[in-house]
Structure formats: C-alpha cells, structure tokens
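Justification of resources, computational component.

The compute hours requested in this renewal are based largely on the per-chain cost of generating structure records like the one below. Each record pairs the submitted sequence with a full structure-token output. That output is archived, and it is also reused by downstream analysis tasks.
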Amino acid sequence: MFIRQSERKFSIDIIGRNKDSLHGSRRLPLNSNISQKEKNLMKKDMITAEMIAPCGLDCSLCKRALAETNPCHGCLGDDENKPDFCSKQCGIILCQKRKDNGYEYCDECLDYPCEDVMEKENRYTSKYPLYESPKKNLQDIRKNGINQFLENERTQWACKDCGGVISVHTGICSECGKQYGAQVIQVNDDTWRIEDGMVRFFLLKGSEKALLIDTGMTIHHAKEIAAALTGLPVMLLNTHSDMDHIGCNEQFESFYMHPADEAHYRKSGKSGRIIPVQDGEEIDLGNRKLKIIHLPGHTPGSIAVLDISRRVLISGDPLQEHGRIFMFGEHRNMPDYVRSLEKLEKMTADFDEIWASHADIPIYPDCIHKLHDGAQNILDKKVNGHEADFYGQKIMVYDLGFTTFLCNV
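The structure output for this chain reads:
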C-alpha cells in the first residue's frame, strides 16, 4: 500500500523551523475535488524545514513518514508514531549537549561530526537503494539557505511520473509505486547482486578483501555500498568497458580490466589506472579464488569471472537469455564471439550457474550451445532478421526466441 499524500495534512511553511508546532502555521485542505496538478504540488510540499533532522537527514523521505496510516512526524515531532530506535535510541535526538546548547543542527557543535553522525552518514550513503547524505544536506543548507535546499529536495525526490515523494529506504514512489534506484539483493552470506535498472553488478567477499564486479550505470556510490556491506577493502573489476558497466568507476583510483578494452574505456572520458588482467589469471580474495576468462566478441576485452569454489560463472554481457546482446558498432566482432562461445562450451564442467549482467538470472550452461548455434546461423545468413533504427543507427535485429541479437547491418 502506498500513501496518497493528498489525504494527509502537512505544512507548506518553508521559511524555517517552527519549534512550537510540528506542522507550522498553515495546512493544506483535505479536498478530494482539487486537481491532479494541485495534488502533485501538495505531495512535494510535505518536505518542510521541520522535517529536517538535526543531523541533516530529510525525515520526509523516511518510509515511516510516508506510511499510509499513523505516519511519523519526523525526528522533531512527537514520539507517538516514531520507530523505537528514533524515539529511544538515536544518539542524535537524545544528545544532551545539543539540547543544552540549543543547537538547531549538529554542525554547530565542536564535536561534529561525532560517532552518531558518522553512523547515520555511513548508513544513508550505502545501505539503502537511494543515496542521501546528511552531511551534504547540512553543507547545502549553510551554502544556499534552507529555502533553496527544500526546493532542491522537492525536485530531487519527486516521482517523475506522478509527483509523489520517493522513499530513500525503499526507492519506491509513495503515490504510484514506481521503483527508483539500485536494489541490493543478498545472495548468500558473502555475495550480493545490485540491480541497477536494466543492468546488474556483483559484490563478492573473501576473508581478506572484497571485489566489486562492474559499477552499474545510474548510481554514484557503488564503492560505499560495497564497503558498508563487507567491512573489507574493496577492489573493482570490470567485465568490459560499455557505459552501463562503468558508471561510478571514478570512485576507484585503479581497477582490473582486460587491456584490449582500454581504448574503448578511454573514449568514455572516464579516468583511473587500469590493472591489466589476462585469460587464466586468478584473483584471491582470501579463501575465495576467482579465475579470469577472456571472451572477446561483445567487446575486444570482455571477460567472465569464474567463482571457482562456488561453481558460478559471472559472465558480463556475452551470455543472456531473454535479453538483447549488442553486437553492433565498430568494437563488436561476431566471429570472435562465436569462438569465445566454443571456448566456454569446453569449460561447462567447471560451473553450474551463470550470472549474466542483463535479463534472466540465473541461467545455465546449456544456454551456451544455443547462443553459439544462433550466432553461427546469423553469420551463415540462415536466420532472417529485420532492419531497425536504434537511436539514429541502423541495425539488424535477430529474434531467436530465447534471446535477441542486435547486429551491424
């Protein structure tokens, strides 16, 4: 269930905090006859100064503040509908020094940022689907003023489809239910996958360090997510250099990549030092060895990662079921792709599952033979395709039923 914000009372007073009343001096009318445009404006106007916590967190984005029944009124509100942690355990709200000195925001204190503030900062910049930095919020308030900050928040956290408020905890619009941001899914005790829209990437934890395999496309804090989940030093490996796999590579000074993909990577304008990896090399995370398998074709330097003891192949883009395999553009090579599949067919005894970066997950080794035959039939002109326009580029589309190849004309 998702709250209909037009059915709640909330303030449109954005001049500053009203310390005598949670909801300020004006309330929006509960009128079912108002227009949709007016309703959308009302939804965003629940983001008010009194909903900004002392640490800088915007409480109006909390899933409890967006609850359909008994919504929380934020850190500065009454305790009636607050989660127990916020009302009874939060060191920031309970801070006696803040109360004694009348600090409105935590950054007025000489001890800022304290341990409690950093715990909140680390949690909200890494744990949840969407990125929210209490420290940055306070910096923006100091730099631009509370009014401009609130206007920016209303724009940033408004659903593009309906104008509802998006929850930082779930990434879900409170009005229409649309999902935003990355979803972190724990596969087992030391493995995670991060769903970032139409692409996914992976986090593997060993006893000594962790490895992030790709960095997605739309999120900007993959390294923080990985560090918070594992508590270990985090390295990065890219399966290849297409834009939807290198989204926040700039967070890393260096990363593993096959050198054949460096030229394509540099064209993206991304920085960082490439640590070259070659076919057959192993990376040891501490009691967890990973083997590099070079699979040219989709890109010259495409690689898969074999999680040896888990018998899982993390394949990048070359292997997909019910997806679209991009084989058009100057850096694609269909004959190389077919040879890579022939190579993988000889290795299927080493893995039981395949984790692809797109479409179905998991998929299984028998898909390799189907992909090989399909690609070879395209090369041999035994499959009928149709011409299509892909963002201004003419391509050939081959729908094989179990997957689709997008190829050069």
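Residues 341 and 372 are 6 Å apart (CA to CA). The two ends are 47 Å apart (CA to CA).
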